[in-house]
Amino acid sequence: MPQTPVPRQPAPALDLPLIIGTRWRLSEQSPERFTQVVVYRGLHCPICQSYLKTLKRHYGAFVDKGVETICVSMEGRERVQQAYDDWGLDDIPMGYDLDRAQAEDWGLYMSSGISDAEPEVFAEPAVFWIRPGGELYLANISNVPFARPDLGQLLDAVDYVTENDYPARGDLAA
Known about the structure:
This protein is α/β, with parallel strands linked by helices. It has one domain: Glutaredoxin. The protein has helices at 46-64, 77-86, 100-105, 151-163, and strands spanning 15-17, 23-25, 34-39, 67-72, 94-95, 110-112, 121-123, 126-130, 136-141. The strands form three sheets. A five-stranded mixed beta sheet has the order 5-4-3-8-9. A two-stranded antiparallel ribbon has the order 1-2. Strands 6-7 form a two-stranded antiparallel sheet. A hairpin with a 5-residue loop joins strand 8 (126-130) and strand 9 (136-141). 32% of the residues are buried. The model has no long low-confidence stretch (mean pLDDT 95). Residues 5-163 form the Thioredoxin domain. One of its GO terms (molecular function) is oxidoreductase activity. This is AhpC/TSA family protein. InterPro entries: AhpC/TSA, Thioredoxin-like_sf, Thioredoxin_domain.
């Protein structure tokens, strides 16, 4: 059973291959403000396509505000590469082969495919922010494709959080 990660605690480990042929490790990230991990269901999901295209429109602004972003999926390299190409996600790092153990560590909901177009098992969407020291700040985990945080609001929140030293909330969940 997945365990929801707790804000103000160390984020779970995350180590994935990228479609550009390198590895991405959360422990090696050094953003100015946050590392943003966006989990998406996969190539089969039109809502993911729309969400990641919106992310692409905001991507430069996130970078300018000191937020490094990666998109991750349980799908393999070929399907993640196809999503990257077909959806026009230039510049966004794309991780693949998120395994069940990692998905459970991050508290992700997982679903069984209900059609031939869907993978046998895939993670449902989530967005996480991790502080430069590895502490979890934000966890937005969904069990359905149509409930995700508004990326424009998140972008606006970066400055507010930083300028007001706004603490992570929900740390009493443990």
